[in-house]
Amino acid sequence: MTQLTRDEALAIARNALPMFGIGPGAAIDFVKQRENVVFRVTDGDASYAVRIHRLGHRTDDEVRTEGAFMAALHQLGVPVSDVVRTVSGGLFAEVSGSDGEAYQIDAQHWVDNSSPLGDAGDAWMGTDALTVGVFSRLGEICARFHSASRHIGKIPGYSRPAWDLDGLTGPGALWGDPRRLAGTAEDRRLIDTAEKRIRERLLSLGTAPEFFGVIHADFTPENVLAAGSDFVLIDFDDFGEGWWLFDLATILFWYHRHPHADDYRAALLDGYRKAAEIPQRALEELDTFVLARALTYLGWAANRPDDETSGFLRAEVLPVVVEMCRDYTGTLAKVHSKGQAVGDQQLLDRRAATIGPYSPLFYDRPLHLVSGEGAWVVDAEGSRYLDAYNNVPQVGHANPRVAEAVCAQMKTLNVHTRYLSAPIVDYAELLLRTFDAPLDRVYFTNSGSESNELALRIARHMTGCSGMIVTDHSYHGNTISLAALTTGLTVSEPLGDHVRTIHVPDLDGEGQAGRPGDMLQAALAAVDTAIASLQEAGHGVAALLIEPAFSTEGLPRVPEGYLEGLAERVRAAGGLVIADEVQTGLGRLGDEWWGHQATGIKPDVVTLGKPLGNGYPLGGVVTTEHVLESFSSTNMYFNTFAGTPAAAAAGHAVLNEIIDRGLVARAGELGRHVAARLGELVERHPRAAAAKGRGLFFGLALVDSAGGPDGDLAKRIVEALVGAGILISRIGPNENILKIRPPLVIEGDELDRVIDVLDAALLAEAGQPAARV
Ligand SMILES: Cc1ncc(COP(=O)(O)O)c(C=O)c1O
């Protein structure tokens, strides 16, 4: 807001008059001082509105754009006030104040015998007296303005802030962050959820010209003057690009509570349609725009705590807008008979009719997630869930640093890897620094499957053999060659002739306690048998492909020496050791960057995926210089989308985020805390048999009363946790191991909450815990 006193403003206005060719004897009357200062200047028969812009609010280009746009509208016959140029033809003048600052001043012809159609406050309180006929005319004038604006487009030198997604929602919104005005945590949560939902809706609507263009952006009853029988649109102080319907939403917002709100709305839309079309898809979002507009006012008030209008907004408008947020986010909450929200049921039906009913969905009642932040996600009904399951958003859902890095790169350039590009090399260097020698080369891919597929090719190339060893309950991806070695989920392809499976020993397994030596011997003997069988069949051994922590297998606690023994035998048979780190990599296991470092195996090839880009598709194969030289000198590896600058930006931002926030060490610390707490659960709950995992990858093995794996109990617990707002899942051949694997940014108290709720769910589902000793 301007700091000018009225006298200072008057002096500036007076000094500006000659620049507009207005005589020194003109009368100057003060009109208003809100954010800008406005005077009415009368010089003989002519009368002008002279405005001093608040200091530093607009750039010169922005002020110039405003004047030029209004002049263009005027020329096209749109009833807007007529811009007065300076004597030198400029669109504004610059005058120094007594503070030495340069003020921007512009002028328009005064609209004679006019007064504003109404007052926003009266509109809100329902005390004004507009007719439906006025709304119809307002609709029409708005449509005429939009048509002219479309015709004009962005005038040369256009420069204005935009009412786009960022301008409307989020912490950097043009008028401020509405969450800051919320008086309670609950109100803040509602506003936050509504903002995210608005963002999602507008993102899906998009900014095609039929929806989006240069709008007025402050189309209130105060900014339409009634002059005789004419309406004149004034105050373009906020104009810029935005959704066309935002203008209609602005006026509708002020009459939202009015006794005639529905009639006004119908009349406004009818009037608009007389002069321009409203696409059905945009109309569906009219309430989204009304709420978005409402939130802008709260943001405005939050930025001006001492302003009188802010007081009104806080007292009269905020409570209503909070209820609007509740209604808006709860629209889908009308529960369907099967427990699925109506909107979600429709989405499920459409999903089944397009991508088919077999594409898997979690939970009895599938979740329709619409937004997230940190370790939290929000569903379409506005319910929040603590995400203790997802390892792709490693540095948190909707991580702004990653999103902004990708966005900035996409706005700059995104080409494939056949051009020299610094981002991917920078990223490769940083990524490889997290590996130990001799792993110092990387291929980029788009997914875990592509990484493993490439690793298989490399292994075949390096060994001249095709034989593969995998575990008997594993998953490494969805290509043909990986389907042929999938043992951990349903595929119609039979296990390949060239594949042998081994069973991973688990010291926590049924009846295994106290026999680690025997177990190790038996497990390694099984590896010898697999190798011999591959050799006998003429396949030889190309590779062992395993996850260092055996997560699909249910995080078995393997006897000491097992991993080393495995690797040793496979190498002796001429095969490579491939560590699939799609799940266990990037700090997941705590203390070390990679699962193989944490578990002590030394792979020849490491495959990467899921968390690398925090959701942006990015995978990789890390290997040695020797392997890369051999493979790449005889195979041209090119992968269009892999290693683009945008992918590199995502990966780089993820690494920086992990490094800056110390997430690897933190995962180790938090992991030890959770392991201790899970251990307590095992002591107290007879049906909790073993705490598994490390870092931020945990399991809790559940058993029935006879000590056998209890997948049903695990399912009930998973569902109970979802009901309590916590997301986990289950793994293992019997699906009896609870899988807890949150984004690395989860907080200690949030993890405690997961364990507390788990504790209560175990009690509810599996009965009384043993007394503590
Ligand atoms: C261990 C492991 N490897 C590979 C993959 C395949 O990764 P993507 O789905 O990115 O192809 C997965 C996916 O779940 C996985 O868990």
Automatic annotation (TrEMBL):
<dbReference type="Pfam" id="PF00202">
    <property type="entry name" value="Aminotran_3"/>
</dbReference>
<keyword id="KW-0032">Aminotransferase</keyword>
<dbReference type="InterPro" id="IPR011009">
    <property type="entry name" value="Kinase-like_dom_sf"/>
</dbReference>
<dbReference type="Pfam" id="PF01636">
    <property type="entry name" value="APH"/>
</dbReference>
<keyword id="KW-0663">Pyridoxal phosphate</keyword>
<comment type="similarity">
    <text>Belongs to the class-III pyridoxal-phosphate-dependent aminotransferase family.</text>
</comment>
<dbReference type="InterPro" id="IPR015422">
    <property type="entry name" value="PyrdxlP-dep_Trfase_small"/>
</dbReference>
<dbReference type="InterPro" id="IPR015421">
    <property type="entry name" value="PyrdxlP-dep_Trfase_major"/>
</dbReference>
<dbReference type="InterPro" id="IPR005814">
    <property type="entry name" value="Aminotrans_3"/>
</dbReference>
<dbReference type="InterPro" id="IPR002575">
    <property type="entry name" value="Aminoglycoside_PTrfase"/>
</dbReference>
<dbReference type="InterPro" id="IPR049704">
    <property type="entry name" value="Aminotrans_3_PPA_site"/>
</dbReference>
<feature type="domain" description="Aminoglycoside phosphotransferase">
    <location>
        <begin position="33"/>
        <end position="276"/>
    </location>
</feature>
<protein>
    <submittedName>
        <fullName>Aminotransferase class III-fold pyridoxal phosphate-dependent enzyme</fullName>
    </submittedName>
</protein>
<dbReference type="GO" id="GO:0008483">
    <property type="term" value="F:transaminase activity"/>
</dbReference>
<dbReference type="InterPro" id="IPR015424">
    <property type="entry name" value="PyrdxlP-dep_Trfase"/>
</dbReference>
<keyword id="KW-0808">Transferase</keyword>
